[in-house]
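Deviation from plan, reported transparently: nicotinamide-adenine-dinucleotide complex.
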Amino acid sequence: MNTEATPSVVTTTRLGRVLLVTINHPPVNALSVDVRRGLLAAVQEADADDSVAAVLIVGAGRAFIAGADIREFGKPPMAPSLPEVCSRLEACRKPVVVAIHGPALGGGLEVALSSHYRLAMPDARLGLPEVLLGLLPGAGGTQRAPRLMGVKPALEMMLSGRHLEAGEALAVGLIDRLGEGNDVLAAGLAYANELVASGASVRPTRAAAAALADKPASQAALDALKVDTAKRTPGLFSPLKIIEAVQGALDLPFDEAVALERQLFLQCLDSPQRAGLIHAFFAEREVAKSPETRKATPRAIDSVGVIGGGTMGAGIAVAVLNAGLPVIMVERDDASLARGRANVEKVYDGLVAKGRMTPGARAAVLARFSGSTSYDALAQADLVIEAVFEEMGAKKAVFAELDRVCKPGAVLATNTSYLDIDEIAASVSRPQDVVGLHFFSPAHIMKLLEIVVPAQVSADVVATAFDLAKKLKKVPVRAGVCDGFIGNRMLAVYRATADHLLEDGASPYQIDAAAREFGYPMGPFQVADLAGGDIGWATRKRKAATRDPEARYVQIADRLCERGWFGQKTGRGYYLYPEGARTGTPDDEVLAIIDAERQRAGTTPRGFSNQDIMRRYLAAMVNEGARVVAEGIALRPLDVDVTLVHGYGFPRFRGGPMKYADTVGLPTILADIQAFAQEDPLFWQPAPLLLKLIEEGRNFDSLNKP
Ligand code: T1G
Ligand code: NAD
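Because the crystal trials were delayed, the predicted structure below was used instead.
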C-alpha cells in the first residue's frame, strides 16, 4: 500500500511533546486519497517516536474537514480507505486530539470521533450529513456517534443531516471542550498539553458504553425513529440503511457492526439515489458560476426598492429584509400599501407566534421596512425589483417611473413570469441596467431564483444579480429570455401532457398519485390548486390569439375556471377544500366535467398505469429541457435540473429531469417520444439535441463539463 502522501496536503510539526498534524487541502480539506495517506503516515510517525506524547490534528483554512472527497464517489476506490484511517487513529498509542473550527462533517466528524479527545471552537459546525447525498456515515460514524451521544440524538443528527453548533455538540457529548476565541491552533495546543500534563491516556470511542447502557430505551428510540422516517421520507433509500446500521450498534460487537455498516454503505453507494443527490449537490454549486460572474464585479447593493406588495412583492421584501438589507415598498395607493405592509408583517407575526422570533427581533427587522406611494422614495435605491400585475402596459409604466427617478447605476429588475424582458428593457433609457429576477412563490421560502439575462444587459448587472442571490441564500440559475424562461416554459409542456392524459382517460387524482409515487411532494393538479387556476387561465387567454390551431388544446381547466373553481383560494379546484383545508379531497363533479369534455372532444377514454403516466410526463419534460439547452436559454443541462428541483418539486434524489434521462438512457426517452408521436406527431417531436446526443453516443451530462 503506497502511503507516500503528496507532501503539501498533510504536514507534521513537532511542538514540544505534541505532534501537530495539519491538513491543508483547499477549499474544505476534503478527505481525498492524499489526505488519507497523510493522516495514516502521521499516526505511524507518532507511534514510532517515543518522544511524542500526543497528536493534535487541525485543519488549515476555513474548515476542519468537510468530509470524504465527494468527487471520488463512483470512481474506483483508492487505498487506504477512510475506515482504515479511522481505525488506525483510534488505535494510536498516544492520545489523539482534534481541534475543530468551521465544518467537521461526514468523514471529517468520523475522524474526530475516532480520535480520543475533541475540542471545538465557537464557529465549529459538526454533523454527519451523508443522508443528503444518499449515503450513510461509512467510516464508523454509525457506531461511534451513538456511543458518545446515545441512539436518539445520534440518529436524529444522521437522519436530518443537520449541522450542530459547538455548544449543542458539547451538550450531547460529541465534544469534550469548547475552545475560546478564534485561534484554533492555540486552543488545540493548550488542550493537548493540558492532557499530556495530566497524563491523560488514550480513549478509544469504540469502548465507550455509557450512552448505550440503557438498551431498552435505546431500542425504543430507534423503533420510534424508524416509524417516523418511513413516514417522512418514503422512497428514500439511505435513511433506513442508517437505522439498520445503528441497530448493529445495539446488537453486535463493534467490529461486526462496523463490517455491517460497510456493507450498508456500499449498498447506498450503488443506489441511483446517491448519483442523483451528488449530482444535485455539485449542480447547485455550479449554477452560481455564470460567464458574467467570472468576468464582472457586482455593484454594491445596500438598499432595495420593491414595487408592488402583493403575493410576490411582499415575499420578495421579506427575503431582502431577512438578508439584513433595508426595503422601500412602493404601491399604487395607501390601501394597497397598507395591504403590502400587512403581508410583510404577517410573516414575522407568524414567526413570533411560533416562538421562532422574538418581538424585539421582529421590531428590528421591520424598522428596515418603509413604504410609499411615491416613486420618488426610490431615488437612492441601489436595486429596484418590480412585482406588479403581469401585464406589459403595467410593467412599462412602472419602468418609465423607475427610469425617471432612480439614480444612475441603479439595477432595475422585473419579477415577471412570462413577459418579454427585452421589450421592457428597450422601453427605458438604460436597458443595460435591466435584468429579470424571477422569484418563486412564496418568495421568502422558495430557494430558486431565475436570473433572466436580456440582450442589452451589462455583465456587472448580471453579476450583481448573482451576488444578491448569495445574500438572499437563493440558488440562482441563469436563464435566457423566452416565454417562461427555463422553468415555466418546461412546466407549460409537461403540464399539457398531464391535460392530454386527463382527456385520454386518466383521472387527475391518479396522475397526482403517479407523480407522488415518483417522488414529487405534489402532483400537477394539486400544484395548480395551490398556485391558483386564475393565473394559468389568464396566460391561456393571453396566448389564445397566437395558439397553433393544429395543436391539441384541452379545455378542462377552462371549464373549472369558468365556474370560479381556482383551487385552494376558492375552496375548490380539481379537489374540494372544505373549510379552508390544505389537503383536497377528490370531487365527483370534476370527474363529470372531465367526462363531458372527453365527449365534446370525441376522445374514447382508456386506462393508464402510473408508469405510463410518468413516462409521458417525463418524456415531455426532458424533450423540452433539451430544446431549452440547445437554444441557450439554459447554459447546461444541470441548470435545467437545478431549476426543476428547486422551483418545481422535481424529486432531488433523482438529480433533476436531465440527470434522470441519463439514468434511464436517452434512447429509452427517445423511444417513448417516438411511440407517443404515433398518437400526436405535432406535440411529440424529438428535440434535435436529443437525437444528436444519441447519434454521438453521448448523454446530457457530457454537456455539463466546462
Ligand atoms: N468533497 C469535495 N468537494 C467539496 C466537499 C466534499 N466533501 N465539500 C465541499 N466541497 C467543495 C464544493 O463543491 C465547492 O467547490 C467548495 O468545496 C466550497 O463548497 C465516509 C461518505 C462544507 C458546509 O456532505 O456541506 O464524508 O464549487 O460552495 O457554502 O462517511 O460545502 O468551489 O469548486 O458548499 O461554505 C459528507 C458537504 C461527505 C459536506 C461549505 N460531507 N459540503 O459550504 O461552500 S460524504 C458533506 C458542504 C462522507 C463518509 C462519507 C458545504 C460546506 P467549488 P461550498 P460553503
Ligand atoms: P398580485 O396581484 O398579488 O400583486 C400585484 C401588486 O402590484 C398589487 O398589490 C398591486 O396593487 C400592485 N401594483 C399594480 N400596479 C402597480 C403600480 N403601477 N405601482 C405600484 N404597485 C402596483 O400579483 P403577484 O402574484 O404578486 O404577481 C406579481 C408579479 O410576479 C407578476 O408579474 C407575476 O407574473 C409574477 N410572479 C408571480 C408568481 C406567483 O406565484 N404569484 C410567481 C412568480 C412571479
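The mean pLDDT is 96. We consider this an acceptable substitute for the interim report.
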